[in-house]
Every structure is written in structure tokens, then in C-alpha cells.
Request: fold
Amino acid sequence: MTEPRPLALITGGMRRVGAFIAMKLARHGYDLALSTHQEGDIKPLLVDTLSKTQVRWHGFVADLSDPAACLPLMDQVAAHFGRMPDLLVNNAAIFGQDDWPSMDAQTLESHFRLNTFAPLLLSKALVAKAEEGKRPAIVHILDQRITNPHGDQISYTLSKQALAVSVRSMASAFGARARVNGVAPGLVISTPDYNRALEARLADMMPLGALAGPEAVADAVHYLAGAGNVTGQIVFVDGGAHLKSFDRDFMYL
Reply:
């Protein structure tokens, strides 16, 4: 009997970095479960890639800011595909603009719910229900700022730092039952806050003299998905940004 294609669950997998990860995995033969918080929100280039590769895929709407949504999502994926994912990419995140004076319980809670609690609870659900003898791969999408933080987007930064610390802890806790790793990007997809002049200036600030692109993040995820002897590691995909300390978020430089 032919072995089924590997299955990946990517949270926030229909747009921005998540879409590039999905496209990379589709081109390498993965079936895809793509979660989104808003139905119909999918990158057109991803639609084209899914059509050309003809992989099996399905979109799932889930509000992962609610911890109670994590286990049902994993159950829905398993029910639809008839098996648990071989790879979980925890990519969905919230990115607020608070600093320490404006930080409060609400900003902290909203960021930790989606950026920290959801990845950990989804990971638990996957490993608890994985078939015996299977060793799923888990990859958390982090941020290069975990190494040299600044004071901007403080709730976001704290939530990503917590998730980064969990990589080693959960890799140790799961042991042989699952591999847990992280990918820490720098600025890979700009927002309207950036212009070409600023991006060029930022590229010159990087130790490698260039900003990484979302394809490079997808490459790192694909590597970790297949690196059977790697666990508890964080790969920085940032042009070397984590080697330097910046006083402010990139948009303010």
C-alpha cells in the first residue's frame, strides 16, 4: 500500500509568512491543513500553487486566541484527513504596538493567548493523539528580537520570548515522542509602515548586508520538518539581525 503524503497543519497558513511556508511544503509533497481566523482570507499565489501541485488541502476557521479552540481544531484536522499531522507549524500571531506605559493585563493576555498558549496547547494535543511510533515535528515561528529585545511592542516581545524558552523545555518533556524546534525571522515581509528607502537602510544594517525573505523562513521550516535528529533548536533567519542590538523596532529606525 502506498504511504500517504505527509500532512502539515499550519496556523495562520493562508497569508503572509504562513502562505509561503504552505507553498514550500506543497511543492515538497505535503498535504496541508491551513487554519485561519477569517474565512476566505487566502493569498492568491498560494491558491495558484495548491492548484498546480494538486496536493490535498483544506482550510479550517479557528479563533486560536481562545484556548478552548485548540483541541477541537486538532480533532477537526484528524477527522478531515483521517490521520494526525506529521508537522505542526505554529505561525499565527498577534502583533500589537504597546510599550511598557501602555501595557496592561488585556494586552498581555491577548498576546499570550495566541502567541504562547495556542502553540503549546496545539502541540500537546498533537503529541497526545499521535499514533504509536510516530514522531511529529513541531516548529514555532518566533522573532529575532528574542535575543536582543527593545521596548517596542512589549506584549508581543514577551509572548515570543516565552514561546522561545518553551522550545527546549517541551523538546525535553516530549522526548522521543516529538521534536520541537523554532524559526526566528527578522523583517521578511514589510507593512505599509516601511518604504523602500527604509528597507534599503535596514538591509545595510544587517551583518549579512541584506534582509531575509519569507522564502528563507519557509526553507528553514522545511529543513526542520525533515531533520529527524534535531530537537530543541532555534534557527535565526534574519540576515544576522540577532547578532546586533537595536534601540527601537525596525519601523522606527
Remarks:
- The longest helix spans residues 105-129.
- Residues 7-252 form a domain with the Rossmann fold fold (CATH 3.40.50.720).
- Helices lie at 16-27, 44-53, 70-81, 105-129, 154-174, 196-205, 214-226.
- The chain is about 40% helix and 15% strand.
